[in-house]
Amino acid sequence: MSKEEQIAQNEILIARKDAKISQLEFELAQLKKYIFGTKSEKFNSSEVDPEQLNLFNTPEDIQEEVVAAVEVITYQRKKGKAHKGRNKLPDHLPVTEIIIEPEVDTTDMVKIGEEVSETLDYTPASLMIIRRIRPKYVDKKASEEDSGSPIFIAPMPMRALNKCIAEPAV
Questions:
Q1: Residue 44 and residue 40: Cα distance in Å, rounded?
Q2: pLDDT tens-digit profile, the chain (170 residues)
Q3: Opening angle at CA 55, ends 52 and 56, nearest 5
């Protein structure tokens, strides 16, 4: 093998390696774009080789898609009352009232209000409302001296589910 043949063979090997390197760099760039690029499903036509034909959309299909995509939807909405919390429990159900007093001595205190919580209970073949009334008290002496006197009220009993109006039997 002569020196010129070796040089020619080395040049061919170098050209192959350069082609392989550029191919691997392109693949690496594509993978980085896939991993770190935007996650949109939109097809960006600027990245496609202009000589490559589009397999799925022909010009006729694109025109049909544009025509089918235009659709006018109208609806009417009632204005007025906005929903303000839970629906009221029915008036025809029987009511059982339970008064829960605070654990402190309330003899020298003034009742200033009460917290009322209604839940729905079920006994076989009937529904019943349980109304728990928790009176609020404030000390007479403290209220005359100070406007920021403490208010005493019994704690709410535990429920099976928080903020639920159903009793465990329901």
A1: 10
A2: 788 889 999 999 999 999 999 999 999 999 888 888 877 655 555 566 667 766 666 555 555 555 556 678 888 877 766 666 777 888 898 899 999 888 888 888 888 999 988 888 888 888 889 899 999 998 877 766 666 778 888 888 888 888 888 888 77
A3: 140
* Nearest alpha carbon to residue 117 among 159, 52, 165, 73: 165
- CB–CB of 170/126 below 8 Å? no
Task: Determine the Cα–Cα distance for residues 150 and 130; give it in Å rounded to an integer.
Answer: 28
Does the pTM surpass 0.85? The reply is no
